[in-house]
Design a protein that fits this description.
With 621 residues, the chain is α+β, with helices and mostly antiparallel strands. The protein has helices spanning 137-140, 218-232, 242-254, 288-300, 305-317, 367-381, 388-404, 423-443, 449-466, 490-493, 502-515, 542-555, 558-570, 596-612, and strands spanning 25-29, 34-38, 42-47, 55-57, 68-72, 78-83, 90-96, 99-106, 114-134, 145-150, 156-162, 165-171, 176-178, 181-189, 193-202, 286-287, 328-329, 340-341, 355-356, 468-469, 474-475, 516-518, 521-522, 540-541, 581-583, 588-590. It has 2 domains: 22-207, Glycoside hydrolase, family 65, N-terminal domain (Beta-galactosidase, Chain A, domain 5), CATH 2.70.98; 232-612, Glycosyltransferase, CATH 1.50.10. The chain is built from 14 helices and 26 strands. The protein has a 15-stranded antiparallel β-sheet that branches. A hairpin with a 6-residue loop joins strand 6 and strand 7.
Length: 621
């Protein structure tokens, strides 16, 4: 830890102020929150201490003045990176004309703190390192009071404080204050290193002591790598596209709150579905649908503890009147998610508005309970025993759905136009009642079986009567429509019809003909014929590729399923991450990143192909 004396400060920044392409970001996480770091070493997004807390680094949705933590080799001509083994320890290698440096960084897990640690080592020659630290609490709006201090261990530190939040930065070489930010440059020669650690803490508490006085970053990096590796090593994951599936499972675990069991849909807000457009949403909450699908992916891959943890979260979150069921909750089960805009942020590359909270929380979406019941059925069949509270809750929720499934809703795509009687919503309502009937029949659980069976038959008949277009030979998006949407792939996945029913194959063919914008890449729907209440168009929705591969595997076209899944894997970024959408014309990712729905669809499709190939036994749902 002997860096050379800092070089004279030159121009403030040798890297662009604008955010990087979405695919250039990697994610770090500790089971409570996450940070996005660009290929060039800028932490441009970090909410502390939780996923849905305010951001202290918000350059992702604005510029450097909205907060970031930059650690880079500015004159590098080649930059490569990787996650170390099956972990979220990120290793970035900078090759410059004078030498090579490696930055290793992570958010330590299992230590009940919100920290981000970074280490830069010169591995050859000599490198000049640029370090910039700009803290702005309140999503980039609040400039803190920043002061230098000596901590309890006698080490220098920098503290930033505003309102309830405080950050402390420690390290071998700390940046200097200049023009409302902290900057520094230093030179490292071969074998030299600098370690840096950032810790969030409540502003009313003393500055926390640093961990591991000697090699205080390296030890924590090693411990975190080992912790992730132990989790990933519990089960093998799907055999098809194994490496991509394991990385996706790790992403799903990273997006799971370690304390509450809630599963966040993505760690970001307002990354646009169309750059420059208004389709910008806050995904830092627990959608029951997405979380239930995540649970299915984990259970199918052998992770049983997560099923118990999430069911306990569900019982707490939805406790009360079934009529008050929401489609999403905060990670702690909170229900209040008012949507507002942040006018002080320019938006990712000018994409406005920037939203926090999500007005869709008040929507009715009948498909949600179907996903929940499918997931709980899968967990039950995998050995998670019901108790009185969990089954009683399911009974009341199913009874409420039976009373209201005929009502129009907003559907899986959360349209802000007029409610419709969506075919997918009714198919998933059928699935909810079907799983409830089967649970009662197979496990002897108390239930109004005759009423439920009658409702299941009525929903099934209604879908065939109003959701099927005989002329086109396909299921359609909603009653009265002649067009499809990609959610109809779930008709095959949830077992609404037998796999050999020709209506399934013809629906898959119709969806591909209408929505496939490149081989294996689908729009979720055509925005010109779907009244979603928002201006602009979209790109290929990556989860739909996973659903297509899954449906093809169920229908027995396994070779094509593997080709489609390979396409999905091919558009992951260099560290195996997927955003929400992808533009096949430009190769750019759009939407929030990383997206749980994209990753869980990849895992479940890989599992379905394994089942179709006879590599694993099917999990009965």
């Amino acid at each position: 830890m002997n860096p050379s004396a800092p070089a004279p400060r030159a121009t403030p920044l040798a890297t662009p102020d604008r955010p990087a392409p979405i695919a250039d970001y990697a994610v770090l996480g500790d089971g409570s929150t996450a940070a996005l770091v660009s290929l060039r070493g800028s932490v441009d997004w970090m909410c502390v201490p939780h996923f849905d807390s305010d951001a202290c680094f918000a350059a992702l949705l604005g510029d450097a003045g909205n907060g970031r933590w930059l650690l880079t080799v500015p004159d590098a001509t080649q930059v490569t990176r990787r996650y170390v083994d099956d972990s979220f320890v990120l290793e970035t290698t900078y090759v410059a004309p004078t030498g090579t440096a490696v930055v290793t960084e992570t958010m330590p897990v299992d230590d009940e703190r919100c920290d981000l640690v970074r280490q830069v080592v010169c591995t050859a020659g000599r490198v000049d390192v640029l370090h910039e630290w700009v803290v702005r609490f309140g999503y980039g709006a609040v400039e803190p009071w920043v002061s230098r201090l000596v901590d309890e261990d006698g080490e220098p530190a920098i503290r930033a404080i505003a309102g309830p939040d405080a950050l402390v930065l420690r390290g071998d070489v700390l940046p200097e204050a200049t023009d409302h930010r902290h900057e520094g440059r230093f030179t490292l020669h071969e074998g030299e290193r600098v370690e840096l650690a950032l810790t969030w803490f409540p502003s009313w508490r003393p500055v926390p002591r640093r961990r591991h006085i000697d090699a205080f970053v390296e030890d924590r990096i090693d411990a975190t790598r080992d912790a992730w590796g132990r989790w990933a090593g519990v089960e093998g994951g799907p055999r098809t596209q194994h490496a991509a599936a394991v990385r996706s499972l790790l992403v799903l675990r990273l997006l799971t709150d370690a304390e509450t069991g809630g599963i966040v849909a993505a760690p970001t807000t307002s990354l646009p579905e169309l750059v420059g457009g208004e389709r910008n949403w806050d995904y830092r909450f627990c959608w029951l649908r997405d979380a239930a699908m995540t649970l299915e992916a984990l259970v199918e891959s052998g992770y049983r503890d997560e099923a118990h943890h999430w069911r306990d979260w569900l019982l707490r979150a939805v406790a009360g009147d079934p009529g008050d069921l929401q489609i999403m909750y905060r990670l702690d089960g909170g229900r209040h998610l008012p949507e507002r805009t942040l006018a002080h942020l320019a938006g990712y590359r000018g994409s406005q508005p920037v939203r926090v909270g999500n007005a869709a929380v008040g929507q009715v979406q009948h498909d949600v309970l179907g996903e929940v019941m499918c997931a709980l059925a899968l967990a039950r069949n995998a050995g998670l025993a019901e108790d009185g509270d969990s089954w009683s809750l399911q009974r009341h929720l199913v009874d409420d759905l039976v009373a209201h499934w005929t009502d129009p809703d907003r559907g899986i795509w959360e349209v802000r136009g007029e409610p419709q009687r969506f075919t997918h919503s009714k198919v998933m309502a059928w699935a909810a009642v079907d799983r409830a009937v089967r649970a009662a029949e197979q496990d002897g659980l108390p239930a109004p079986l005759e009423r439920w069976r009658a409702a299941r038959d009525a929903i099934h008949a209604d879908v065939l009567a109003t959701g099927w277009d005989e002329r086109r030979g396909t299921f359609v998006q909603h009653e009265g429509a002649t067009h499809t949407d990609a959610a109809l792939l779930q008709v095959a996945i949830v077992g609404f019809l037998p796999p050999d029913d020709p209506r399934l194959a013809s629906t898959v063919a119709a969806i591909r003909a209408e929505l496939e914008v490149a081989p294996g890449l689908l729009l979720r729907y055509r925005s010109d014929v779907t009244d979603d209440g928002v201006a602009g168009h979209e790109h290929a929705f990556l989860a739909c590729s996973g659903w297509l591969a899954h449906a093809l595997a169920v229908l027995g076209d396994v070779d094509e399923a593997e080709r489609v899944l390979a396409t999905l894997v091919s558009v992951t970024n260099d560290v195996g991450l997927l955003a929400e959408q992808y533009d096949p014309r430009t190769g750019e990712m759009t939407g929030n990143m990383p997206q749980a729905l994209s990753h869980l669809a990849l895992v479940r499709a890989a599992h379905a192909i394994d089942v179709a190939r006879g590599l694993v036994a099917p999990e009965s749902a």
